[in-house]
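CORE FACILITY INTAKE
Project code: CF-77B
Contact: R.S. (postdoc)
Sample description: multi-component assembly, two entities in total
Requested service: structural model of the whole complex
Turnaround: standard
Below are the sequence entries exactly as provided by the requester. Do not edit them.
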Amino acid sequence: MAINRLPINYWLLTCAWVVASCSSHSTLPFYGIETIEGADTTFRELPDFSFLDQDGQPFTHETLKGKVYVADFFFVSCPTICPVMTKHLKEVYDKVGPEPNFLLVSHTIDPRHDTVEALRDYAERLGVSKDRWRFVWGHKDAVYHMGHSFYMASMQEDGSEGSGGYLHSGSFILVDAHGRIRGLYDGTQAREVPRLVADIHKLLR
Amino acid sequence: MRPNIWVYCCISLALAGCLSDNYTIKKRQYASQGRLVYQKQCVNCHQDDGNGYARLYPPLHHALQSKPLDLVCLILEGRRGSVVIDGESYTLPMPAFGHLKDDELAKLLTYLYNTWGQEGPLVGVDEVEKQTRACRSK
């Protein structure tokens, strides 16, 4: 029979591909602050929080339970990196498509100006669905604390000309369904979009 | 002996050609340096093609119907409030670029008016300087 005549290299390659496919999920690293107890390492999970989405509906840690999501930090009037980050995240939105267990989450770091209405207007102008992309309002201290302590994202007010009033990280942060950070991406670089999309699919499998 | 009228004509044409060449070369030089200013200051919102992004950041074609110097104050001071372009209202504020120097503005304007299929003028630093002063004294 023909199948017996296939060279051994073919079978080895096939096995390697199967193993690689099965283990691709586990190839994503874990990021964040770790705790080591004996032989066990645990990574800090998303803390409890209570914010609002662009429709003024509660957006909490419960909203994200069991979901793979990408978080970033931005502000509506940002003249520097936010427009290009939004454009790249919109590409992720388009490429991943509707997935019930996936969300994009953009936290404003300027809650004084970026009211719930301003966030809704921004989302509508961008043409995205609330089911797939939440724009999130929270008290500044709570947002900054979560950004620093869990997402490892830096952000601060800044009075220098051209910054728009804030300096902040341009990272996209990929979080798995257990609330653990599994990927960090430079949101200002177009080349990061395909890598992020591929990693999202790995976590959704 | 009186020089031939044709000699005068040839010299004049050659001089005009040189001047025109210098103008074109300078315009190209300004436009290419202005592209760097655009890439650093403007491209995030208005994009490489000048068409803006989504319904958030407006396209530039409307603004480019004005004369180049009419844009100096807008660039230096930014804009608050909405602007309507092709029936679409854009509400995000445009930040002020008051830190740009006159030569950067001249090069940026030369780039804007000589890109995306347009053949516009060379915008000189001296004329921008006058306009900058007028904007700042308002």
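Facility notes:
- The two ends of chain A are 36 Å apart (CA to CA).
- Confidence is low (pLDDT under 50) at residues 18-24 of chain A.
Invoice: internal transfer
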